[in-house]
Amino acid sequence: MRTVLLLIVLCGASMVIGDGVLTPAISVLSSMSGLQVRATGLEHRSVVLLSCIVLVGLFALQHRGTQKVAFMFAPIVIIWLFSIGGIGLYNILHWNPNIYQALSPYYIVKFFRKTGKDGWISLGGILLSMTGSEAMFADLGHFTSASVRVAFVTVIYPCLILQYMGHAAFLSKNTFHMPTGFYDTIPEPVFWPIFVVATLAAVVGSQAVISATFSIVKQCHALGCFPRVKVVHTSRWIYGQIYIPEINWILMVLCVAVTVSFRDTTLIGNAYGIACMTVMLVTTFLMALIVIFVWQRNIIFALLFLVFFGSIEAVYLSSSLMKVPQGGWVPLVLAFIFMSVMYIWHYGLRRKYQFDLQNKVSMRSILSLGPSLGIVRVPGIGLIYTELVTGVPSIFSHFVTNLPAFHEVLVFLCVKSVPVPYVSPDERYLVGRIGPKEYRMYRCIVRYGYKDVQRDDDNFENMLVMSIAKFIMMEAEDASSSASYDIANEGRMAVITTTDDAGTPLTMRDFNGLADSMTTRSSKSESLRSLQSSYEQESPNVSRRRRVRFEVPEDDDMGQQVKDELMALVEAKHAGVAYIMGHSYIKARRSSSFLKKFAIDVGYSFLRKNCRGPSVTLHIPHISLIEVGMIYYV
Questions:
Q1: What does the pLDDT average to over 172-190?
Q2: Range with the lowest mean pLDDT among 54-58, 489-493, 566-570?
Q3: 377 vs 373, 374, 518, 554, 573, CA distance in Å?
Q4: How does this protein lie in the membrane (predicted)?
Q5: Phi-psi sector, 531: left (phi>0), alpha (psi -120 to 50), beta
Q6: Rounded distance between C-alpha atoms, residue 63 and residue 311, angstroms
Q7: H or E stretch at 494
């Protein structure tokens, strides 16, 4: 059931990406086709060429973000809605005022009774009148649900109904204008202004779906269902405005290819309808699960919701599937490709995590080594990245086996994306201890929501040290934890608040230059420190980092053991921080099936080699990075 549910979710996400390919193509090509109504000598291939130029320009400007032109989006959409509403009202009054009778459900029954199977097949084209609503989830990231409802009920729906009624009124008297019906309904004096507004509205609509595609890819990546990609935040003030270069260029190539290949809005519309209806149906199914598990409502209520809306959408989807030979195969192929990529990536990550979980180092073997862990402890803090939230990963034993030396303070760092949109800064850091106090080993779990921004924040190291110091103080105040070490308490974690400065055991002050830091005992040689200094001078992002020193205040109420532990932490921080990360190669076992070998040895290996590395995604400075090579046989 878990695999089936995962495939359904990935199918919906893949169709959203397919929607990001088809929406710009059909929107821009439809708007540019209006040129053939007035410029009668213009060839259709010229319209296709102009559409491709507009599409390339649209995708080429994505890296600049939308904040500089976003103030124009709302006026363009409002002008567009009122324009089509006004044109529809004009056509109703001018051509057929009795068209309002079509609002009666009687004509729906009459239509299907008269047309039969042909009427059902026509639903594949009728559904295009409501496409675009499947992307409303993107608006919910920036607006409240109440504002979306008010805008839809008071402006969007009335204007669309007036336009469709006016269009029908015009066609009832001018059936020979069927191919270019919309632009033929525009009165000649206002044709060119409406054409300009229609083109701008097509660009705005395309921009909205492209942004929604970036958003869904980022969320899939945060949940471990998409390969690592570069996420650029294009706005300092508006949260959620992102740009993903790899996805942007893939969408552009596919969008131009669809436009050039089909050159017909009818064929693209067939593909577009399948993508939209699949997204709607998957959304309805997942919404039913939310009603049961999140809202804790009666399962009968959820089933009624699913049956009512799902049956309507299923009828439209079944009709649109009849258009698969006429262009409807495009979203199915795109969905299959993106689903395969996401599922293989998720499967590889999951198998790797299971291997780490089964091969972690036991605490009894750690305790048998003593406080020195049987190795040389050198000054500094070692941050060991791991996916495990309990236990010691096998990468640690593999490292010390080949190089029997490690830092005085060890922090096993786990960065987790949790299935909630945002995590409060006061709930982000969880800190615990591994082994007795004299081992100087800690565990820190940093939690992010799938909409949170993991910025390249130079303050991360300082926040981590502060969180560990607060944990040491909290542990000292807890009488039960001050006793001798008990292996049964292993795994206990404490949530550390970072916004409250009250009770901070360390003071932090800025300092300039490196002279102050050189007096601190360090594990780095003179040549390595010289190399780091040159690296910082050549790297503007690093040279702008805030330099601080920690100090342990003189407090008579603080126990000597606590003070010694804090001093050891401060001295280790001043000596330097090293980031240790596994550079893993995953191989399928010889006894594995052919599909598993293909997924792991070919699919996952290809994706891992051609996507961004974890050190780049986590913004780890290269000068302080140590990678440990390991082979995982899963």
A1: 79
A2: 489-493
A3: 8, 9, 20, 27, 14
A4: Multi-pass membrane protein
A5: alpha
A6: 41
A7: strand 493-496
